[in-house]
Design brief:
By secondary structure, this protein is mostly helical. Helix content is 72%, strand content 2%. It has a domain of 81 residues. The chain is globular, with a radius of gyration of 21 Å.
C-alpha cells in the first residue's frame, strides 16, 4: 500500500519505518545486542593467515561484489525492463496506457534496491566486525542520497563518482581541520559544506556531475541513421 503514495510521502514513510526498526533493535537486546551492539566475524578467514592478509581478502570480496552489482544494474538499466522503469519515471500515466502496471514495477524496483542495500550493509558489517543501532542513523540515508544527487541520479557511473567525491570530501575536511586548526567539529564542517554543494548542484546542474546516458537500442540506431540520411 505504501507504494501507492507519492514519491515524497513514500520517502517519509520509509524513513519513518527505518527509524522505528532501529529503535526496536536498540531496545531489544536479543536481536543484535541492544545499545551495546554485537561483534561479527570476518566473512573470509583461515587459520595461519595474518590479520593483514585477512583484511585484504575481505576488501577484495567487497570490490568483487561491487563489480558484480554494477554489472547487474547496468544490464538491468539497458534492458527492456529498464526502459519500462524509465518510462514510468518520466510519465506514469503514459506508461499505464501502454499496459505497464506501475505499482508492480515499483514494488520490484523497491525490492531490488533493498536487496542491493542489504548486501552493502552486510559487507560493511563484516568489514568493521561490529554493529550497533547508532551506526544506522537517518544521516546514513541522507549521505547516500547526497552521493546519488551529486554524481548523477540517472547514471550508474555517476553514482559511483558521487560516492567517491563524498568520501574524499569527508576525508578532506578532517585533514583541513587538523592543518588549519579550525574550531569546529570536522563532521559538522563536512555536512555544512556538502549542503552548500548540493544547493549549488540543484540550482546549476540538477542532472548531477554525469548526466543520464542515452538509451542505445537497435531501434534507436535505425532511427538515428534514418534521420541522418534525411
Amino acid at each position: 500500500p505504501a507504494l501507492r503514495l507519492g514519491e515524497d510521502y513514500l520517502a517519509i514513510v520509509t524513513l519513518t519505518f527505518g527509524e522505528i526498526l532501529r529503535l526496536v533493535v536498540r531496545a531489544e537486546h536479543w536481536i543484535a545486542g541492544g545499545v551495546w551492539g554485537i561483534t561479527l566475524p570476518r566473512a573470509i578467514s583461515w587459520a595461519g593467515a595474518s590479520s593483514r592478509m585477512i583484511i585484504v581478502a575481505n576488501i577484495g570480496l567487497v570490490y568483487f561484489c561491487l563489480l558484480l552489482s554494477f554489472i547487474f544494474v547496468q544490464l538491468v538499466t539497458n534492458s527492456p525492463y529498464g526502459r519500462v522503469i524509465r518510462a514510468i519515471r518520466e510519465d506514469e500515466v503514459a506508461a499505464e496506457t501502454l499496459g505497464k502496471d506501475r505499482f508492480r514495477y515499483k514494488a520490484q524496483v523497491f525490492m531490488l534496491g533493498s536487496g542491493l542495500a542489504g548486501l552493502g550493509g552486510a559487507l560493511f558489517a563484516q568489514y568493521v566486525q561490529f554493529i550497533d543501532p547508532y551506526m544506522f542513523m537517518p544521516m546514513v540515508t541522507f549521505t547516500v542520497w547526497i552521493m546519488v544527487i551529486l554524481g548523477g541520479p540517472a547514471n550508474n557511473w555517476g553514482v559511483l563518482l558521487g560516492a567517491v567525491l563524498v568520501e574524499l570530501f569527508g576525508r578532506g575536511t578532517r585533514i583541513a581541520k587538523d592543518y588549519l586548526l579550525l574550531p569546529i567539529d570536522p563532521y559538522n564542517l563536512q555536512y555544512m559544506l556538502l549542503g552548500l554543494l548540493i544547493l549549488f548542484i540543484l540550482f546549476y546542474r540538477p542532472q548531477g556531475v554525469l548526466k543520464e546516458n542515452q538509451i542505445k537500442t537497435t531501434a534507436v540506431g535505425v532511427a538515428s541513421q534514418w534521420l541522418r540520411r534525411s
